[in-house]
Structure formats: structure tokens, C-alpha cells
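Input/output pair, single chain:
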Amino acid sequence: MAIWHKIYKLSAGPMIMIVVLTKDNFEKEVLKSDKPILVEFWAEWCGPCRMMAPVIDDASKEINNVKFAKLNIDEENEIASKYNVQSIPTFIIFKLGKETNRVVGYMNKDDFIDRIKKATK
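Output:
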């Protein structure tokens, strides 16, 4: 399975990179990351997950000190189970390989960005 990153080029902004996580890169990208990383646990069939996509894109433009990543729970169920993900979307912030914060469900952009900033100070 190929490991790839989703890259966005904004018309007047920076490149946005959201790492697509699999069992093959989870340890390297998350557990061994030297900067905080927000992992979205999601699924294609999840309506609230789709609603969060533009919120995540906006947050990744505004917050430069955090990596953003996605993990499809249908494809990587073992990892989702290991982190006791029972509802989606679930957002877990990891620092130095440890979970430091968790948010479940949809939230608006301002609240989402505020939670990330507070959790990654």
C-alpha cells in the first residue's frame, strides 16, 4: 500500500499537508513526531467527519506548530481500537508520542482552533 500525503495549494497561502496515516507510518508520523500532531479518526460514511473537513483545512492554515493527520477507522481498525475510538470524528492530539487531549464530534472552526491552541501550548 502506498503512503501518501494530501497536499493543498491555496491561491494566496501556504501549502497545507495532511498526513494520511496507516499502520505502516503511524509510529513514525505520530509516536516519533518531534512536534504536536492532531490525528483525526474518521470514516468516509461519517457525515460529521465530512462537515469537519473544511474546519480542519482552515485550522491547518492557521496553526503552524502542529502537524495534521487523518486515520480511516475502516482501514486501520486496530489503531482505532488501541486508542479506544468509539465515536467519530475523534481528534486526538499527541505530543512526544503521548495522547494529551481528545475531542469527539463536530465543532465550529473557532472552538476547534481554540481547543488545539490550548492543548498544544
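Residues 1-12 have pLDDT under 50 and may be disordered. Residues 27 and 101 are 18 Å apart (CA to CA).
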